[in-house]
Amino acid sequence: SDLPDGFLLNQNYPNPFNPSTQIQFGVSKNTYATLTIFNALGEKVSTLFNGNAIAGQVYNVTFNSNNLTSGIYYYKLQTNEKNEVRKMILMK
Questions:
Q1: How far apart are alpha carbons 78 and 19 in whole angstroms?
Q2: CA atoms 39, 86, 65, 18: torsion sign
């Protein structure tokens, strides 16, 4: 596969965002994956993806923050083999 390190998690776009942003991710082999949003305190805010990710497919998910306050949030992609976390900023 052409996915680096068998795993792809792009920076959200746009960032900063209001009220929604796009997050792209992909995996190089079929695996179970979760994409979760956390606030700055580490509390789970939302789960955007929770299921089997297909190898080579790039997923594009939308995070809608209508019910959240401005601040820093983190999104985490977790598979059986790797975890990655990135930061995003909500400005209302």
A1: 24
A2: positive
Amino acid at 34: T
- Please say whether the dihedral angle defined by the alpha carbons of residues 11, 41, 6 and 55, taken in this order, is positive or negative: negative
On whether the CB atoms of residues 28 and 55 are closer than 8 A, the answer is yes
User: Is the pLDDT reported for residue 39 higher than 60?
Assistant: yes
Contacts 24+ apart (CB under 8 A), 4-7: 5/82, 6/81, 6/82, 7/77, 7/79, 7/81, 7/82, 7/84
pTM of the predicted structure, to 2 decimals: 0.92
